[in-house]
Design brief:
CATH architecture of the largest domain: Sandwich
Radius of gyration: 24 Å
Helix content: 10-25%
Number of domains: 2
Number of helices: 6
Number of strands: 21
CATH topology of the largest domain: Jelly Rolls
CATH class of the largest domain: Mainly Beta
Distance between the termini: 43 Å
Order of helices and strands: HHHHEEEEEHEHEEEEEEEEEEEEEEE
Length: 455
């Protein structure tokens, strides 16, 4: 596993493999599986490509990998696998899944050389994944309170499940992994933590909208990004009763999540997400009917920091719900922005649209007027959603404007488009759309004033 995000080489298409060459008679310059290829697979692939994980086949052994050799070579040479969509011209990311040129050349030379197995004594020890968790030994596991039945057909509203933690003290989350019970029906999982409700002091006035805006913390969000009331009302009229609706008490703060291609996060030492004592976990479940009835009992595993971190990691979202994607138009741009109310450090960003999304840009305009491209995703892929974790966290001083842009293809040329004849608005289902960017930050401590005459 590289960095903190799931590293995967999902090979698509089963093409005929070349004939095997034995160790004897193999040219010295031809790479072998045991000595040259297995280390690459172990470092980059088998976290997914092993029994019981999301990839379609295991690559742990020569016997398992060889039948897919030509397909592996095709995907590697095209750059489609491992999946990575950020433009390398902008930013460096610690979870960059791309293979090095040397590793690519080794795999291709192995395939072109007849896929020799090599000397079994050269095979390195396979990686160990304790108790089935890629993040190692977990300290706590929470799961849905029931095996929830997912119907074979129909539109399925988001389902919400409450799971008490019963912790008597605050915990600090150093890493998480979300494992869907049935990945075939789980589109995404977001886990929130809602702390115990503390009653307001007697006689305390209720905050109005203006007061709430003043208390929005480190960010001021741009105007006119909320979904119009008319659209909300229409959606409410069309919705059916939900047997697991969103809790009236609210959701709370982000804890962890799963989306295609993204299930793990390991936070840097000295940073962690706070899980307040007595919190209730809220599982937001997005199920998609597949034509076959199923059940799901998704779960989250947590690794706790051994001591309180120096900095609390805050995971938040920048969202624009006020947009229209005109029917048949192949290139509609939707923007969102917010302003930093204090000095922060940006650790990661995760852009998200549905099937009409085609590319993304994330930029920062600093108080001095300078603009920097933080992330460019020229070919966004809904099937491989990635949290891009910066190799070197980025300082965003107070007054910085954080700006996201997404482009959508609502035309018939988009083969994933469910209906190019329909105007599209914000919505939860995949045939609707989102302009959503999750990001993680820490709040920088205030600068200490220096004594007179001191630097």
């Amino acid at each position: 596993m590289r960095g903190s995000v799931l590293a995967s080489v999902a090979v698509v298409g089963l093409l005929a493999a070349p004939a095997t060459s034995s160790a004897q008679g193999t040219p010295a310059s031809t790479p072998t599986f045991t000595k040259d290829v297995a280390p690459i697979f172990y470092n980059n692939c088998v976290v997914c490509h092993r029994k019981g994980e999301i990839a379609p086949m295991s690559l742990l052994t020569f016997q398992e990998a060889r039948p897919f050799a030509r397909s592996i070579a095709a995907q590697v040479s095209q750059g489609t696998m491992p999946p990575w969509h950020a433009d390398p011209a902008y930013g460096k990311f610690e979870n960059d899944r791309r293979l090095s040129d040397k590793d690519k050349a080794t795999i291709l030379a192995w395939v072109n050389g007849g896929t020799p197995e090599g000397n079994p004594a050269d095979l390195p020890q396979a990686p160990v994944f304790p108790e089935g968790w890629a993040i190692g030994k977990v300290d706590a596991v929470f799961q849905l309170p029931e095996d929830y039945p997912v119907p074979a057909e129909g539109t399925i509203d988001y389902k919400y499940f409450e799971v008490p933690t019963n912790f008597t003290e605050d915990k600090w989350i150093q890493a998480f992994q979300v494992k869907p019970g049935d990945p075939s029906v789980v589109h995404h999982v977001i886990v929130f933590s809602r702390p115990p409700r503390r009653p307001a002091p007697a006689g305390a006035p209720q905050a109005d909208n203006a007061q709430r805006q003043q208390r929005q913390g480190p960010f001021t969000f741009g105007p006119n990004m909320d979904e119009p009331e008319s659209v909300k009302a229409n959606a409410a009229r069309q919705s059916t009763p939900n047997d697991r609706p969103a809790p009236k008490e609210g959701m709370g703060a982000f804890v962890g999540g799963f989306a295609p291609g993204q299930a793990i996060r390991v936070f840097k030492e000295g940073t962690a997400v706070r899980l307040p004592a007595g919190s209730t976990l809220i599982f937001q479940m997005h199920y998609t009917a597949t034509g076959k009835a199923s059940t799901d009992r998704s779960k989250i595993g947590l690794v706790f920091a051994k001591e309180p971190p120096k900095q609390e990691m805050i995971v938040a979202a920048l969202v624009n719900q006020n947009f229209t994607l005109p029917a048949g138009v192949p290139d509609t741009k939707v923007d969102a922005q917010m302003t930093m109310n204090t000095d922060v450090t940006l650790w990661s960003v995760m852009p998200h649209t549905h099937v009409r999304g085609r590319r993304w840009e994330v930029r920062a305009t600093y108080p001095d007027g300078r603009t920097e491209m933080l992330l460019n995703v020229p070919k966004y892929d809904f099937n491989w959603q990635t949290e891009y974790v910066f190799e070197k966290p980025i300082k965003l001083p107070k007054g910085t404007v954080f700006h996201t842009s997404a482009w959508y293809d609502n035309s018939a040329a988009n083969k994933s488009n469910p209906d190019p004849k329909t105007d599209v608005h914000w919505g939860e289902q995949t045939w609707e759309e989102m302009q959503f960017t999750a990001f993680s930050v820490t709040i920088d401590p205030p600068s200490r004033p220096t004594a007179a005459g001191q630097p």
